[in-house]
Amino acid sequence: MTGELDYSLPPAVRRIASTFRLIGWISFWAQIVLSVVSGFLLLFAISGLSFRQADSNQSSPGTGAGLFFATLALFVVFFSAYWAFRYTRLARKLRSSRPDARPKPKDAVRAIQVGLIASLAGMLLTQLGAGAIVGALIFKSFEQPTQGGVILSPTAVRGFITSFDLLIVQANTNTSIAHFVGIVSSLWLSRAVNRQ
Question: What is the residue extent of each domain of the chain?
Answer without folding.
Answer: 2-142+155-195
